[in-house]
Task: structure prediction
Amino acid sequence: MAKSREEINQTEKDYWNEAKLDRRKIKKLRRHAFFYSYKREKKILQQLLEDFNDKEVLEIGSYTWSFWFNKNTKPKKLTCINISEVELENGKKLAENQNFSIAHFLMDANELTFKDESFDIVFGGAILHHLDVEKSIGHIHRVLKPNGKIVFLEPLNMNPIYKIYRKLNPKERTPDEHALVSSDFKIIKKKFTFNHYFFDFFSVVFGFIALKLFGDKNYNNWINKLGYNLDVFFSKIPFLHFLFARVIIFGSKK
Result:
């Protein structure tokens, strides 16, 4: 029997409040596989974040902004929401010494309670795949002003290899999360015109080899760089997008 949205929300809240996730196993591989792609990701996000200045901005989450924003990123006001009390408090602590206004609300992103057309931009890091994509995207569209923008960084689950890995390592994710698949992109396209950058296929394969050769060190090596360069090249070919592990989605409200 399918879980209700309320049951899923409670499970999500419990996992984040009680820090139940265990990602120690994958972190070593990520340090190799994502070494160069994290640099590319940061450069792309910094370009997108230029639109945040002097805008009313909503983060679906509590503190992704603390990793994404640089000293030149100054929204008119930043609003953060989270379903987890603990995660929300973590965000409040990071916000104490910022030079722009930040407000925090305990809220379900599937049922945003903000007024229509309240924000210029809505963003989040690895958050949509924890939600009912159709419901959350509907609310995000509603609370955005005309021509409002979205920026999301999300994991993908279209590659059969990743599907198997996720099945074999359930402790790395919450029970009901679902990394994005092609049907989720179709839902987003109904409400937004958007583009994307895809990350990490060859870099994961080559990163695994580098980890075996170098151990948990020397991430700046030719093996990782080769995997990264192959990713940049092949990510430009649309029919290969299903191979990749992560995506930055950015676009505007229809």
Summary: Residues 5-253 form a domain with the Rossmann fold fold (CATH 3.40.50.150).
